[in-house]
Design a protein that fits this description.
Layout (H helix, E strand, L loop, with lengths): L5 H13 L3 H6 L3 H11 L3 H13 L3 H12 L7 H18 L1
Helix pairs in contact: 3-4, 4-5, 5-6
Length: about 100
């Protein structure tokens, strides 16, 4: 997304989300994606999941690990059974940082 128009970016990102083109969404290397997902993450565990994947894909492993840690230990967002999966991803992400 070469345009500097933040509203255009949000429209495109919302379209990608609504059409379940999540791989395409996280592949866009633009700060507006991180901001968009960050705002959405405060309301949705799915967006938090996308945000850590965005960070991981773009080499921001520390940020991805922090988000995974939040998901792993947050009973507010996930059921206990799913919580274990995030905890394992967090541990694996931390290992990859070393």
């Amino acid at each position: 997304m070469e345009s500097q128009d933040e509203l255009l970016h949000v429209s495109v990102l919302e379209w990608l989300m609504s059409h379940k083109l999540l791989g395409e969404l996280i592949s866009v290397d633009n700060p507006s994606v991180e901001r968009y997902l960050g705002r959405a993450a405060s309301k949705s565990p799915d967006a938090t999941d996308l945000l850590w994947k965005y960070h991981e894909q773009h080499g921001n492993h520390a940020d991805a690990a922090k988000l995974l840690q939040q998901l792993a230990f947050s009973k507010r967002w996930v059921h206990l059974r799913e919580n274990k999966g995030f905890h394992e991803k967090y541990k694996n992400e931390r290992k990859s940082m070393n």
